[in-house]
Amino acid sequence: MNSELLHTVQGGPALIAWFDGSMPSFHDAEILELALERDKSRCRLKVHAFRMTPDANEKGFYITVRHVVITFQFENVVELELTDFNHQNAVDGLTLARQPNGNFLLTMDPCYGLFGKIEAGNLEISFEPGIPSGSVYTQCSA
Q1: Cβ pair 103, 119 in contact under 8 A
Q2: Whole-prediction pTM value?
Q3: pLDDT tens digits for range 70-82
Q4: At residue 137, what are phi and psi to the nearest 5 degrees?
């Protein structure tokens, strides 16, 4: 994730502050929700992200910290490409870029389940700290 670009997005600086001034890799982040609204060509993407530590717990899982559910709210979507939805939808990473036309492009790199890209004219970010219910990461957190 491009933290310079994220500083220009509404809600981006607060997200960076949540992660103590840096961004997670979004490796193994899970797509929790994807909603499309015809009104204003909106798309809402909810992602469970965290920071993975090099330490393991007593069960042998890497300890994960700074869990958060991030909502990416896109408006004026002009391109949407989605593939391979399943029950977990873990991504290898997320990439945010600015297109030559000024649009935002979020790319979800494939790992296990949903991946693809969303291009839109506007983007806002909000987040809620915590591990979502039913997450496999309840056994991996500190």
Answers
A1: yes
A2: 0.92
A3: 999 999 999 999 9
A4: -80, 0
